[in-house]
Amino acid sequence: MGDKQTPRKLFDGFINAAVSIIDSPVTWFRERVVTPNRESYPWYHQKFRRVPTIDECYTDDVICFYEANSQFKRDKAVDSEILAILRIRMEDCNMFHGPDAVAKCKSLVETYKEAEGNWFCKYGDLGFHGNVKDAYMKQKHRMVWERRHGPVGSGMRDAAAAAGDE
Predict the structure, then answer these.
(1) Distance between CA atoms of residues 117 and 110, nearest Å
(2) Of 64, 80, 68, nearest to 132 (Cα)?
(3) Per-residue pLDDT for 160 more than 70?
(4) Distance (Å, rounded) from C-alpha 83 to C-alpha 90?
(5) Which family is annotated (predicted)?
(6) How far apart are CA 152 and CA 120, in angstroms?
């Protein structure tokens, strides 16, 4: 009985030695180089400070305008990625459930439609070269429209109803 276990122990010892020869340098490098420096790398999930928005900038402050525009572009990129992830989740749910997707994916579809509407409300019709000033003017014009005619998409109120509200 002892004779049968001896080759097995030798084989296990050889495998453990081979694994430790390959694994030891990798483990050393990770523990001594990667992990201590990970916190100091600025490109690991870089967090930018929030800057003043365009409505808080003076009209002649070019630096403030540049910072607000950079913040706007970062926010647009993040919102676009969130929308893309929601779209992929909705499409995957529809593909997985097939004919039952209408009922089973209803919450995902509603979430995506709401996010899509919010994204278009903020960034839609600005084009590729739209900047923070264009978005601010779009928001201002939308608010004026809603004050005069009610929520966008509800139809225009007639002049008598608008006069009666004021």
Answers:
(1) 11
(2) 68
(3) no
(4) 10
(5) Belongs to the complex I NDUFB10 subunit family.
(6) 13
CA distance 133 to 120: 16
Q: Are 149 and 156 in contact (CB under 8 A)?
A: yes
Per residue in 69-106, pLDDT (tens digit) is 999 999 999 999 999 999 999 999 999 999 999 999 99
Residue 11 burial class via C-beta count within 10 angstroms: exposed 0-12, middle 13-18, buried 19 and up: exposed
Contacts of 66 (CB under 8 A, 6+ apart): none
Residue that the structure tokens 């790398």 belong to: 41
Q: Is the pLDDT of residue 162 over 80?
A: no
Rg (Cα) of the chain, in Å, rounded?
29
Residue 64's pLDDT is 94
Calpha distance 46→42 (Å, rounded): 6
- Helix locations, 30-100, DSSP H: 35-38, 62-97
Query: Tokens 């967090």 sit at which residue?
Result: 47
Name every residue whose Cβ is closer than 8 Å to that of residue 104 and which is 6 or more positions away in sequence: 93, 97
Of 119, 126, 37, 108, residue with least CA distance to 78: 119
**Cβ count near 86 (within 10 Å):** 19
71, two tokens = 């913040």
